[in-house]
Amino acid sequence: MKKTNIYLSVFAIMASMFISCGDNDNFSKEHILTDNEIKELARQDSIREAQKNKINADLILEYTANVVVSANLYTGVDVEVEMSKIAQLFDITEEQLLAGIDEEAGAPEINGFAINWSDRKEIAGKSNTNAPWGHWWSAKGDVTGWGDDAMTFAEFNSETKSFHVGQFPGHLTIGQNIKFIECLKYNDKRAAVVIDLNAIDAPKVEASIVDIQEISVEVIPNNSYVQTPVQFDINKTFSDLGISSMDEVQFLGVKQDGSYSQETVTGKGFWYDKEGYVGDHGDNASVYTNYGEVGDDDCIGIGQMPDQMQPGMSVTIQYGFLANNKIVMLKITVIVNAYEDPEEKPAGEPTVIEENISMTKQYDNTYTPVNFDVKDILKDAFKMTTYEIFQAKNNGSLKIYINEESEEEPAYTADSPGYWIDEQGIPTEYGTGYIWCSLGGSETELYLYGGNHPSNCPTEGTTIQTKVIVLCNGGKAIFNLTYEITPGIDIE
User: Fold this and answer.
1) Distance separating alpha carbons of residues 465 and 359, to the nearest angstrom
2) CA atoms 91, 94, 99, 105: torsion sign
């Protein structure tokens, strides 16, 4: 460009500046907005805010979910959704809508997605949870995944026509509020379900105790979490509470201040400290309660904190059943006695015993085990009683290796002491294992257990050979194991 053209361009720019300023001679002077200008800016801000908050949907359904905060559980509430309104919008039947959500053959193609609350950004995908429709949500009400940022989740159940709105344990705080938007689309119609979650504290239990059942149970010290069944009067419990099933019960534990803990942490029960009050898992724990895993319906389970309860100790705990604003309390005294071993040690010094053993099971897509009785072999090799071997297994002094022993501590990859084993008979991790093999039992029984991986192991069957070496008390038991998986079926 020629210099004369540059000068003309600069002159034109300067001239336009003077012309645009009009009568304003002082360019550094602050401009004071007029009332009309202020109103116009406010109007534009309002438009932008409205656009930001707008939910792009033809139908918006709004619901509230009050979720009790829990430090340990994925607790939540069910929020029923008016699916008939969504079906009407889509001009299909409610049955077709639900079938489409579940992606049944021949059903309408119902597309699910989500909308972030914070910026209204649309997130593709019907689900990132275990349900056909539903997502994990952050504190801002934006889609996230399971993990550190997750606060809550929504999982739709077509049978109940409801979202189960739950929490990530320990992430919500009392008083926290989160709004999120689950959406469906069919053809050109869009429906949004807005859920307003309120994180609340558990309501204080004001019910009266209508009966106390006093129970005493004697146990031996245990260094595992095995439960002892303890019987209570279930018929009297039903009568006192006015119920017909334990499914109607809320479980309670008594804390040191006399209040009730409502947050079960051991299935359907609580950990108790050495004073007998609800506490935490750890060195000060004594026993725990649970219901529904051992014995009949009229039994609860009492388990111990491994290696904490010694002969001569006792603890009295309180475990309650709440229903219809009434409480039946079990007052349970756990007495710890020394184990009276009924067996005698085999004579002689610990030795080496080698045996060829075979285990066979039909493939299935679960972890169902088969077992081989190794009690007598281990007793003879180690010159120990069954109880002593069981204790050694639990405290880690019994060690198992695969194929060859080592001076290093075993790195168990399955139920301790045990391993996942690949198709070559080599110990491996769960992700590449074909079978697992572990030692288990009790004070009176000892078995080598094994099962197949539900997806890695071929369904048509396979045979794996490996060597299981068990060391304890200076003795050694070597099992040359042939493990045959025969063709099987998937179990629903």
Assistant:
1) 10
2) negative
Starting at the earlier edge strand, list the strands of the sheet with 352-362: 352-362, 475-486, 462-472, 399-402
**pLDDT tens digits for range 287-328:** 999 999 999 999 999 999 988 999 999 999 999 999 999 999
Residues in contact with 253: Cβ distance below 8 Å, sequence separation at least 6, in sequence order: 260, 261, 269, 270, 272, 278, 289, 317, 318, 319, 320
For residue range 381-430, what is the model confidence (pLDDT) as tens digits?
999 999 999 989 988 999 999 999 999 999 999 999 999 999 999 999 99
CATH architecture of 59-200: Sandwich (2.60)
How do beta strands 260-261 and 111-115 pair?
unpaired
Q: In what order do the strands lie in the sheet with 271-273?
A: 227-231, 299-304, 285-291, 271-273
Sign of CA pseudo-dihedral 124, 129, 133, 134: negative
CA 72 to chain centre: 9
**Which CATH number describes the domain made up of 352-486?**
2.60.40
What is the DSSP code (8-state) at residue 246? Answer: G
DSSP 203: P
The SS3 call for residue 89 is helix
Name the strands in the sheet holding 143-144, side by side, starting at the edge strand that comes first in the sequence: 76-80, 162-167, 152-157, 136-137, 143-144
What are the structural domain ranges in the chain?
Answer: 59-200, 208-336, 352-486
